[in-house]
Design brief:
two-stranded antiparallel sheet; single chain; 381 residues; mainly alpha; 9 helices
Length: 381
């Protein structure tokens, strides 16, 4: 187990992809820094304006409820991914500010058990990122397989193209490649948008857990002087204040992203299930839609799981404070400890758009919303 702890390593993949999307300029010494603005305009115009417009255009041009639902399955999530990316542009300075706080907290880790918590969470965050990446790549792969086995000339997802791409094989192949590259970038954007909130929240939860371990040891070392015990307590209080600041940053930066995700999940689930229920199609297309439902639902599951872990870590801190050796400490120590205990009982929950408190059972609420929309569609169809 390495001694060096760097919490921000959990975010490396996300900032590399944001740089790829034109959202995070490279350092001035980099060779392509001067050309980055031009690159940003091109990549944003193509991937995050033109491609979503083709998907939305197909949904608007659809003539039947089934074709509308098929188009919405992709158009709605893609449109919301653009909104979430715009939200990243708005909050990126605050996310960078949180990195400074994470580095300060890393320096306070003093025992092997505390470092293990952070190392384990960094590994977990990277595994979640890779698992989400695999799901999105499988989704694109099933779309390509559907093109290969289809008798008609179709695209990976229903999209409006301003030229006749079916007139000959060469034009169709170039259109498929053009469409695939845009969708690949959008899939990577969705991967980043849906995994970075989980990573940031789980890292905050990890530092809360590490702090609870540190707090539980206060006062138990008989070789330390009384002023040293109190100094350890003061340091824990200062660290807790930093973590509460992180929670505040998470609330201000991730609140809208969570709201977009929940609304998008309910809408896409409803449209996909309606399509599967009422449209006869081949096995590969059905599998493609099922994987789409799984991918979109997993995004919400990971978010709710991360916030639930954060809430449990907050409760763990209260227990850690209570488990320290406060009975044999003087009144001044116990007064400071009581203040920290009261602050630890503040809710660390994050709300979506300031309206819905995010917990694990929020998944059920989203599914109920999807079912309500499905019932409405079923009634009017």
């Amino acid at each position: 187990m390495p001694n060096e702890v760097v919490s921000t390593r959990a975010f490396d993949h996300h900032w590399i992809l944001w740089q790829l999307f034109g959202m995070h300029p490279p350092k001035r010494k980099a060779l392509w820094h001067r050309y980055y603005t031009i690159y940003s305009v091109v990549i944003i115009s193509y991937c995050f304006i033109f491609i979503p417009m083709t998907l939305i255009g197909q949904a608007l041009a659809a003539t039947s409820l089934a074709s509308i639902c098929e188009a919405i399955c992709v158009a709605a999530p893609d449109a919301f991914e653009v909104l979430k990316l715009a939200n990243v542009w708005r909050i990126r300075d605050q996310l960078q500010e949180s990195h400074t706080i994470f580095r300060q907290l890393d320096k306070r880790l003093s025992t092997r058990s505390e470092r293990q918590v952070i190392h384990g969470t960094v590994r977990l965050a990277k595994r979640i990122f890779k698992a989400t990446f695999v799901v999105f790549m499988i989704l694109l792969a099933t779309g390509i397989i559907n093109i290969i086995i289809s008798k008609d000339r179709i695209l990976i997802f229903p999209a409006w193209i301003p030229w006749d791409y079916k007139k000959n094989g060469d034009v169709f192949l170039l259109t498929v490649i053009f469409n695939f590259l845009g969708l690949l970038m959008n899939a990577l954007c969705a991967l980043n948008n849906d995994s970075y909130p989980v990573t940031y929240v789980t890292m905050v939860a990890a530092h809360l857990e590490a702090l609870s371990i540190r707090a539980s040891r206060i006062g138990h070392d008989r070789e330390l002087l009384e002023r040293q015990h109190r100094q350890h307590l003061i340091e824990c209080i200062q660290d807790h204040q930093l973590i509460l600041k992180l929670v505040k940053i998470m609330q201000s930066t991730l609140s809208m992203a969570f709201f977009f995700q929940f609304f998008c999940t309910a809408l896409a689930q409803c449209a996909a299930i309606f399509f599967l229920a009422y449209v006869k199609t081949n096995f590969s297309r059905t599998l493609h839609m099922i994987i789409l439902i799984v991918a979109i639902t997993n995004e919400t599951v990971f978010i709710c799981y991360a916030v639930e872990v954060l809430n449990q870590s907050g409760e763990m801190l209260s227990k850690g404070i209570y488990n320290c050796n406060w009975l044999s400490r003087p009144t001044e120590f116990r007064r400071d400890l009581l203040i920290m205990l009261m602050r630890s009982q503040r809710s660390t929950s994050i709300t979506a758009a300031g309206l819905v408190s995010v917990r694990l059972n929020t998944i059920i609420t989203v599914i109920k919303g999807s079912y309500t929309l499905f019932t409405l569609l079923n009634a009017i169809s």
